[in-house]
Amino acid sequence: MNRVIKTKEETQEIFDFAFKYCHGDNVKQGGKDINISIFKCLDKILEVVYVVSWNKTKEGYVLSIASVMLVSDYKIELLFTDEEAENLINKYAFPKLKMKFSKEEVIKYLINYQKWRRGANSDMPDVTTLGYIIDEAIKLLKEK
Questions:
Q1: CA distance 29 to 35
Q2: Which of 30, 55, 58, 105 is the Cys-Cys partner for 101 at CB 3.0 to 4.6 Å?
Q3: Do 22 and 84 form a contact (C-beta atoms < 8 A)?
Q4: CA angle, corner 97, sides to 142 and 121, nearest 5?
């Protein structure tokens, strides 16, 4: 998961642009789908501390805008095809998510992951990327 720090105004702009091009949307509260207007949910999210995150899934890219308050944890998920996501990534300078890695990238990522796991003072690695790294490491080991 790549967290993206944006202002309220920029988040609203991203949402307005993204909502036009997403091919699936979802509103959740407490991890469960709820029947609320996506726009009403966005209003609730932007009034509290929130985070924007960007994930690569098998279905495509998912942009999530979620409150981080335990009392009212609302979450909007917008799903994009790779092509639609590319436009969003470029327009708003989101981090690019990768699914394919070189042998050197796999080694470096796994070394950093092990350092973090053993208590290094660094950010938690993105678990989606870690999954793709492990898949690539398995392929590399099978080739030998």
A1: 10
A2: 105
A3: yes
A4: 85
The structural domains of the chain, with segments of one domain joined by +, span 2-92, 103-143
DSSP character at residue 122: S
The model carries a pTM of 0.68
Share above pLDDT 90 across residues of the chain, in percent, rounded to a whole number: 43
Kindly state the helix (H) or strand (E) to which residue 61 belongs, with its residue range.
strand 61-67
Residue 107 pLDDT class (50, 70, 90 cuts): very high
Q: Please state the rounded mean pLDDT for residues 91-113.
A: 85
Residues 6 or more apart whose CB falls under 8 angstroms from that of 72 comprise: 29, 44, 48
What is the identity of the amino acid at 3? R
How many angstroms separate the CA atoms of 56 and 65, rounded? 15
Burial class (CB in 10 A: 0-12, 13-18, 19+), 122: exposed
